[in-house]
Amino acid sequence: MQPFSRFLVYFLAVARHKSIRKAAEELHIAGSAINRHILLGEKQLQTPLFERLPTGMRLTAAGELLYGCARRWVKDLDDLKREIDDLKGIRRGQVDLLAPEALSRAFLPELVSRMKRTHPGVVLNVNIRDNKSIHHTLLSGEGDLALVLDPEEMRDLVVVRRLSFPLGFACRSDHPLAQHDAVRLTQCADHAMIVPEQPLALASVFARLMAAGRMAPSVAARANNVQMIISLVMAGTGICLLSYLDVMSEVMRGDLAFVPLIGASVPDLTLALVHDRTRQLSRTTRMVEDIIGEIMAGQSA
């Protein structure tokens, strides 16, 4: 069933690909037919929807508005289909989950594994996004649920559950710091450090803590990727400020030690499970929401 007009289908394809030619290849429709429908739509709306550039098609401000609305319409139709399936008692469906890369190493694999065991007919589509863009992406209709780190503005979202992870220093298990249950920043000053760089959120936290303690780190290396930092720590290059979430899997395997950092100015990393306040969630989405909440509750126990 195709409930949308050909214009809207063509518009969405061109907006995704930023190209009439690529949209035509996806839809197996002549590019001239797609262009004709786009022009007719622009005429009816009395405004251009695309800037036609030598490099392709770029949405205008009006086009961006229509694209956002169209994405929500498509998502609403998907939700309607899932609710109808719920009424029929069909034990299948799919849920789109937005999440930051930091969760891809420990938290998300556990979630997918549990889903496969308990609800094999439900497909969980995990979309890894930049943490800063997840809020906007969820509200644009590109996800059903989202896990977001250190959320700020939450007026448009319902927060289902929060979970805090401590910050601390990751080091090898044979490192002197590994003998401590917790440390203050001054205890780490003389050890070689791997400095987190932007765009990692910890880069600004690290700089702020160093400035507050009036300390200059003993820099062994700099890196802007958590996996690279972990590899350097495991190689014995130095220690690094990370959240427990970042090294959870390595600590559980015994490959690394994690020593919490204590002090009045040391923040926790907050993980929040959220959904769009304006959307009616399907029963399948609620079920996934409950499973994620159970995993988060287990982590905090």
What is the secondary structure topology, with strand pairs?
Blueprint: H1 6-17, H2 20-27, H3 31-45, E1 50-53, E2 56-59, H4 61-88, E3 93-99, H5 107-118, E4 122-128, H6 134-139, E5 145-149, E6 157-165, E7 167-171, E8 192-196, H7 201-212, E9 218-223, H8 226-234, E10 240-243, H9 244-253, E11 257-260, E12 269-276, H10 283-300
Parallel strand pairs: 3-4, 3-5, 8-9
Antiparallel strand pairs: 1-2, 5-12, 6-12, 7-10, 7-11
Number of E-state strands: 12
**Alpha carbon gyration radius:** 24 Å
Strand content: 15-25%
Summed up, the helix count is 10
Distance N terminus to C terminus?
Answer: 47 Å
Write the H/E string, N to C: HHHEEHEHEHEEEEHEHEHEEH
**Named CATH topology of the largest domain:** D-Maltodextrin-Binding Protein, domain 2
The CATH architecture of the largest domain can be named as 3-Layer(aba) Sandwich
Tell the overall outline.
Answer: elongated
Structural class: alpha/beta
Read across the widest sheet, the strand sequence of neighbours is 4-3-5-12-6
Q: Quote the average pLDDT.
A: 87
How many structural domains?
3
Low-confidence stretches: none
Keywords: DNA-binding, Plasmid, Transcription, Transcription regulation
Protein name: HTH-type transcriptional activator CmpR
InterPro entries: HTH-type_LysR_regulators, LysR_HTH_N, LysR_subst-bd, WH-like_DNA-bd_sf, WH_DNA-bd_sf
GO molecular function: DNA binding; DNA-binding transcription factor activity
